[in-house]
Amino acid sequence: MDNPLVGIKYLAKGLRLIATPGLRRYVVIPLLINTVLFIAVIWFGFGQLGTAIDWLMTKLPNWLQWLSWLFYLVFGLMCLLFVFFSFSLFANIIAAPFNDVLCSAVLKKLGNGIITGASSQPGFLQQIAPSILNEIKKFVYFAGWSIPFLILLVIPGINIIGSVLWFLFSAWMLNFEYMEYPMSQHNLDFAQQKALFKKRKILSYSFGSVVSIATLIPVLNFLVMPAAVAGAAALWIEQYKK
User: pTM for this structure?
Assistant: First the structure.
């Protein structure tokens, strides 16, 4: 039986891998782009926040003007939390083109220069149809399961159970999201990936859960995506290909 803490091992391994000289370059460029955007959004956001609070204070009587510092504190924290927690979404979009390259580099590094077990790559036109079909199947699968979980979240009394189920579902999705990189490079389609994950459920939930929790930690969520891609490649080689 798989160790339920194994996910921590592979996310940590992913963090170590992306810090190595041969792989660092695949992380630096998207990280720099995201950092610049992150700073720009904070600068713009706080500028707009100051304007909004100044306008709000003109609507309040003089004896309530002391509330300005409280508005800055509360709304400032709300803005920071929103930016931190939404950052991983934009990071995924910007860094997506780099993820396949990073995964391939990790597979080659850990596989002594070759992508072990991968077949020769077909031409672009031969790849695009199966790839689109794979994405459609994955979307239908995720959408179909997300609806009942979301319904449970809004039912009073049951929403506590719904929250737990939603977390587990999110972990399952994140495992799918990142493990797809090494598996697709070994020409495994959606059905084959799903079958492997079902055989190793503890391993799948473990890795997905750790990644899910790490995305909620400010600053660390800057590095979660490349670390998860690298960790997924290592997990594939050491757990699925052994």
Answer: 0.71
Tell me the pLDDT tens digit for each residue of 200-242: 999 999 999 999 898 778 777 778 889 999 999 999 999 887 6
If one counts the domains in the chain, the total is 1
Residue 32 token pair: 């720099």
Q: Is residue 153 one of the residues assigned to a domain?
A: yes
Residue 60 falls within a domain, yes or no?
A: no
The 10s digit of each residue's pLDDT in 133-171 is: 666 777 777 777 777 777 776 677 777 787 888 888 888
Q: Is residue 10 part of a domain?
A: yes
Q: Which domain holds residue 126?
A: 6-26+96-240
Is 56 domain-assigned?
no
